[in-house]
Amino acid sequence: DRKAIENFEKSLHIARKINHNKYICINLINIAVCYENSGQYDMAEQSLLEAIPFAKILNNDRVSGDIYTTLASIYINQGKTAQATQNAIIGLEYIENTKNYKSYSYSALSLGLLQIKKGNLAEARKLIENGLSVIQQNNLFIEQPQFYSALSELSVAEGNYKKALEYHQQYKVLSDSSS
To answer: If you average pLDDT over residues 150-171, what whole number do you get?
Structure first.
């Protein structure tokens, strides 16, 4: 990830020199994703917050939605549920009408995971199952494992360990087949 970050930072530097808003935004998002993947959430957050004004200049709902849902994911990992919920809702609002089914589903998943942490299990189930349904309807099968993992986590929270095991087994099979 360090080498990728270095390359994106070089590209960002060039984009800034030529004042190319689209590539500034894209590079900031790519840098943030690298930081998130390596667990450097503060750095990821900083890059995404810097990308927001450029996404607004570009007037691109998909990019704005992706930024906010990624921020939600970062805040979930940091245990900041209020900020995660706020950003996931904003992201879902941006994405809802873009027909970007993958992003919409992940927004629903992020909100569902937040609802588990808050103890709103019925709402969590509705959100996660909705996201999974959209993934399945649009043949995005490689994206399914995370939803089954979330349903397993939810079933544990509900005290339904048999269902949790079934979801976990489904998660394992799908994860193994997609790698």
So the answer is: 96
